[in-house]
Amino acid sequence: MKFPLVVLLTIVTSFFGTGRILLAQEYIPIFSQNYSSRLSIEIDPTTFLLSGYSFHLRYQPMFSERLIIGGGTYGLDLPELFANLNKENRDKGWQARIRSAYAIYGEMYLTKANLGWFVGEQIGFQNFRVSNAREVSGATRFSNMLFMTYVGYSWHPYKGSFYIKPWAGLGITGKVDGISKIGDMKYDISPLFPFMSVHIGYSF
To answer: Do residues 101 and 54 lie in contact, with contact meaning Cβ atoms separated by under 8 Å?
Structure first.
């Protein structure tokens, strides 16, 4: 009678012991995750070189390991290259400026938020001012909606909070307000808007 009792005690002990081990394995990954949110500030130095400005906020939500959301504002004088990308505007003396723009962003990183390769989506509202060297009747203003997909890389050169983030994207635009004509000349609004830049940022 002793042998079955020993066997029974062994089975019961093994069962509860295994249960405790599995329970610990289930909870250890939960407590080892970093569930704190994080805020980052970014600027685009190129805009300042082009008589403009930029300021962007990025936020890593709690419980998110790879997603970043955010918003920003910017303005700049667009190089003549951008007008010349559209053959209807090419070499016609157009000068364009984004007076102000406001956008919201979502970025998904391959491994960890704000580190390495990512793909993003942007929805924005841009206010343009265009003038033409061949016309003396002043400038005109109009507003666009922008939907852009972009890809980039977030590089932390010092393995810390400072980072450099080059990116490039292609957007779809459409005029929603204003006039794009000056005298007899019309600034053609291309449905595609390519753009590339380098942001620098700091995470808190």
So the answer is: no
What is the distance of C-alpha 191 from the center of its chain? 21
Residues contacting 95, CB < 8 A, separation 6+: 77, 80, 83, 130, 131, 132, 133
Note the pTM of the prediction, 2 decimals.
0.79
Strand partners, 188: none
Using a pLDDT cut of 90, give the percent of the chain over it.
62
- AA letter at 66: R
Q: Would you say the C-alpha torsion 16, 18, 22, 27 has a positive or negative sign?
A: positive
76-97 pLDDT per residue, tens: 999 888 888 888 898 888 999 9
Q: Which of 196, 204, 193, 126 minimizes the C-alpha distance to 165?
A: 196
